[in-house]
């Protein structure tokens, strides 16, 4: 038997961040572009942009910003707060996974 779980952050019953947004931010970090990130995770550009903006509005700070270094056009990189949120979410998810594994060993 296996225990499954999902982790997401919410405020006032509105999703701030979860697995889909983690995948999106990780893809932005990896590819440096919202267009490339949305393709990587099989999401339309419009949906990716909407989720990114919704999270930023709900959190009250930007998660990504234009990357104008080295003459890049259309480039995007995570803000310091975006990177921190991504890292925190990964750590929370890992902690939950370890707890769930412990519960599986105990009960199954």
Explain how this protein is built:
The protein starts with 8 loop residues before the first strand and ends with a helix. It has helices at residues 19-31, 34-40, 45-59, 80-107, and strands spanning 9-11, 14-17, 64-66, 76-78. By secondary structure, the protein is of the alpha+beta class. It is 58% helix and 12% strand. It is built from four helices and four strands; from the N terminus they run ββαααββα. The radius of gyration is 16 Å and the shape is elongated. It has one domain (9-107): Winged helix-like DNA-binding domain superfamily/Winged helix DNA-binding domain (Arc Repressor Mutant, subunit A), CATH 1.10.10.10. The model has no long low-confidence stretch (mean pLDDT 94). Helix 1 (19-31) crosses helix 2 and helix 2 crosses helix 3 (45-59). Strand 1 (9-11) and strand 2 form a beta hairpin. The strands form two sheets. The protein has a two-stranded antiparallel sheet with strand order 1-2.
Radius of gyration: 16 Å
SSE run: EEHHHEEH
The CATH fourth-level homologous superfamily: Winged helix-like DNA-binding domain superfamily/Winged helix DNA-binding domain
Query: Strand portion, in percent?
Result: 5-15%
- Give the CATH class: Mainly Alpha
CATH topology: Arc Repressor Mutant, subunit A
Please provide the count of β strands: 4
What is the name of the CATH architecture? Orthogonal Bundle
Unreliable stretches: none
Number of helices: 4
Which helices and strands occur, and which strands form pairs?
Layout: E1 9-11, E2 14-17, H1 19-31, H2 34-40, H3 45-59, E3 64-66, E4 76-78, H4 80-107
Antiparallel strand pairs: 1-2, 3-4
Helix pairs in contact: 1-2, 2-3
């Amino acid at each position: 038997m296996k225990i499954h779980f999902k982790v997401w952050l919410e405020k006032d019953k509105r999703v701030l961040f979860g697995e889909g947004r983690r995948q999106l931010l990780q893809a932005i970090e990896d590819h440096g572009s919202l267009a490339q990130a949305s393709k990587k995770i099989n999401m339309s550009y419009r949906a990716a942009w909407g989720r990114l903006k919704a999270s930023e509005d709900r959190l009250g700070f930007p998660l990504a910003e234009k990357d104008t270094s080295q003459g890049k056009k259309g480039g995007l990189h995570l803000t310091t707060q975006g990177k921190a949120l991504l890292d925190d979410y990964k750590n929370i998810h890992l902690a939950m996974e370890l707890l769930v594994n412990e519960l599986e060993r105990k009960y199954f």
